[in-house]
Write a structure and sequence with these properties.
The chain is mainly beta. The protein contains six helices and 38 strands. A five-stranded antiparallel sheet has the order 26-27-28-1-29, with no helix packed on it. Strands 22-23-24-25-30 form a five-stranded antiparallel sheet. It is globular.
């Protein structure tokens, strides 16, 4: 066994006792309270916030009041719960009774909320849904219910973390982190470029001297807050949505995966939770428990469990046992009297399911096996699972003589007539769909609930479209397709129902996106 394996012990036969919660639609956010006794869950379709007792492993109830996706949550010691939703409201709740203290309307979607360490202030980041309004970061005073605009960032804020009562750490979708010092009248900003793409999460270690980031550029980075430098870069094969330190072992847990709209175009999708060494960044183990991309991984402040949430609609809470913790004693936690007095209704009547999930430790000395190419059907094509991977630019590429990465080849619509593939035709070497055939087939056979968006900028992505149009209703899995022509970019979105499509057309037709006036129309009127 290698040195790394010796460091972490032999856990090949270890299993985690797990409680599983099934949400409505994909899970958008999970959050522990300050002492880890409660776990709050927000999902896409129920419009409810569910709270779980992590000590007795039971569902306490639900907070009911939003009319959209629950995007962000935070709680503090003084019985205050804050939530932000796709209905463009931020609600302040009494945590014990479930009553709404205050409901605030914004001109955009509140994607992040964070209560200060002393419980006096609340930061709220608003993502604009059109270029009519800017992205905004608000500073809200909880003592006198007043707020002021702190800044209007050019890029969307993806996370907010208070460093102390006067300094905040922000992350953006352009790959930057930003140290913002707040005073009564002014603020200062200090940015550091960590990633090439959007940062999806930022998490602290136990003594808050380091952070670990997760990005869709397929890397996770450990950043020293005192030295202001990157100490370690962890590589992944899929976009990462979340990363967190383990207070039990010297590891970092990372998770991600391709979403439902992208997985059909790739033969590589890993939705397992990876355990990575803090020394070298190598993967030392994994848990394969979700079948959709992992959205969140968070560790309980009391060190008794950690939780993961996925686009597959499940939240899993893993209990830490003494055989996993080794020499570290796992504390025995009893539910406090304050938490035991929470009286809120359980609207959805969901139940927790108990199961055991195996932890797999990598054997570093095991010889590599020769794999035999297998083929699997993808649409009307057959793609070898072990063919060379599609030519993509890896984050570790450092050659100075290499040419700049080129955009994926687009199909010019030279002819509207599609011919059936010959029986002697071979599988595409890229292992992907013929995008022109997918789009034209989709647009000609779309079911009721579809819309067409034209005059879009050619830089728009599926993530952008999902954020803009998801607030009007539930989009079907793999229901967004983009087609780039020489003179126009067109997208097709397929909702679950026609009413959601009508709402999207009414709200977005003729609106401005970046420098373009977009056109939105129903495919079935």
């Amino acid at each position: 066994m290698t040195d790394i394996a010796k460091t972490y012990g032999t856990l090949v036969n270890h299993t985690f006792n797990t409680c599983t919660y099934r949400g409505c639609g994909f899970i958008s956010v999970i959050k522990y309270n300050y002492n880890g006794e409660l776990l709050f869950i927000g999902d896409k379709d129920s419009n409810l916030i569910t709270v779980i007792d992590t000590v007795n492993k039971r569902i306490i109830g639900n907070y009911e009041g939003h009319n959209g996706v629950i995007w962000c949550l935070d709680a503090c010691k003084n019985d205050l719960l804050v939530s932000g939703s796709g209905d463009m409201y931020v609600i302040l709740w009494n945590l014990k009774t479930g009553e709404q203290i205050r409901k605030i309307k914004y001109k955009g979607i509140p994607k992040n909320v964070a209560i200060s360490n002393n419980g006096e202030y609340l930061l709220i980041s608003i993502d604009t849904i059109s270029k009519r309004f800017p992205n905004v970061l608000y500073l809200y005073s909880l003592s006198d219910n007043t707020e002021r605009v702190l800044m209007e960032p050019e890029f969307k804020i993806t996370s907010i973390n208070w460093l102390n009562n006067e300094e905040v750490l922000l992350s953006y979708d352009d790959g930057n982190i930003d140290f913002v010092s707040i005073t009564n009248d002014t603020f200062t900003s200090s940015k550091y470029k960590l990633h090439e793409c959007a940062i999806k999460s930022v998490s602290f270690n136990s003594d808050r001297t380091k952070i670990v980031t997760a990005s869709i550029d397929k890397t996770s980075k450990i950043f020293n807050l005192e030295k202001r430098e990157v100490e370690l870069t962890i590589q992944s094969t899929v976009p990462l949505n979340s990363a967190c330190f383990s207070p039990i072992r010297n590891i970092v847990m990372i998770g991600g995966g391709l979403d439902g709209m992208s997985v059909a175009f790739s033969i590589n999708n890993d939705t397992s939770i990876k355990f990575c060494s803090l020394k070298k960044g190598t993967h030392v183990g994994e848990i394969s428990t979700h079948f959709g991309p992992v959205k969140n991984i968070i560790f309980n402040p009391n060190k008794t469990n950690f939780a993961s949430a996925s686009q597959d609609g499940y939240v899993k809470m893993f209990s830490i046992s003494n055989d996993y913790a080794g020499h570290i004693n796992i504390p025995t936690v009893e539910l406090s009297q304050d938490i035991a007095t929470i009286k809120i209704k359980n609207v959805c009547n969901n139940q927790l399911i108990t199961e055991s999930i195996k932890y797999i430790e990598y054997n570093f000395n095991a010889p590599k096996k020769n794999t035999v190419a297998e083929e699997k059907a993808v649409g009307t094509y057959k793609v070898p699972t072990t063919t060379p991977t599609p030519p993509t630019q890896t984050p570790t590429q450092t050659s100075t003589t290499s040419t700049a990465p080129t955009a994926p080849p687009t199909q010019t619509p030279t002819s509207p007539t599609l011919t059936a593939p010959s029986t002697q035709s071979t599988a595409p070497t890229t292992g992907a769909y013929n995008i022109k055939k997918v789009i034209e087939k989709y647009s000609s056979n779309i079911v009721e609930g579809g819309i067409k968006i034209s005059n879009l900028p050619n830089t728009i992505t599926r993530y952008d479209l999902e954020e803009i149009f998801d607030i009007y209703g539930r989009i079907k899995e793999r229901g967004i397709h983009i087609k780039n022509y020489n003179d126009d970019t067109i997208a097709y979105i397929n909702y679950e129902d026609i009413e959601s499509a009508r709402k999207a057309v009414t709200a977005m037709n003729g609106s401005r996106y970046e420098y373009m006036i977009i056109s939105v129309e129903l495919l079935y009127k």
